[in-house]
Amino acid sequence: MAPPQKQPPFDEMLHRARDGDGVGFDLLYRNYAGRIQAFAMARGAADPEVVTNDTMLRAFQNLNRFSGDEAAFVRWIFTIARNRLIDAHRSETRRPVLSDDDAPEQPVASAEDEALEHMSRDAVMDRLSSLTATP
């Protein structure tokens, strides 16, 4: 069994990820995704894994905008995670959740059907005869 490899310093992981090195992205993900997922779970996220993946993807897409040390990076990705949680909560509250109790028991008639139901055949014929023909 091989001994565990030593973790590279944060600056090296960040530099590698900024250069597009997949290993750099993988190292950052492995170091921080678990904490993000725990944060999302603690905040009651419906799908903490989605929040985690969205957070890390957003961070990776904006790595060139980040500046600072590891502590600043942690604050930055947790801010992204917090914003993703807020977005997820907003979208959940905008979508009404329908239950079987909300479904109408009988189909609802269209407005046209209701109007025709209240008019007699003679009344419809009278109204139609008053219309002028267009050439």
What does this structure look like?
- There is one protein chain.
- This protein is mainly alpha-helical.
- The protein has a domain of 87 residues: RNA polymerase sigma factor, region 2, helix turn helix motif (Rna Polymerase Sigma Factor, Chain: A).
- Helices cover 64% and strands 0% of the residues.
- It has 6 helices and no strands.
- Helix 2 crosses helix 3.
- The longest helix has 25 residues.
- The chain is elongated and about 90 Å long.
- 16% of the residues are buried.
- The mean pLDDT is 84.
Secondary structure blueprint with pairings:
Blueprint: H1 10-18, H2 22-42, H3 48-61, H4 70-94, H5 111-118, H6 121-129
Keywords:
135 residues, single chain, 0% strand, mainly alpha, 6 helices, Rna Polymerase Sigma Factor, Chain: A
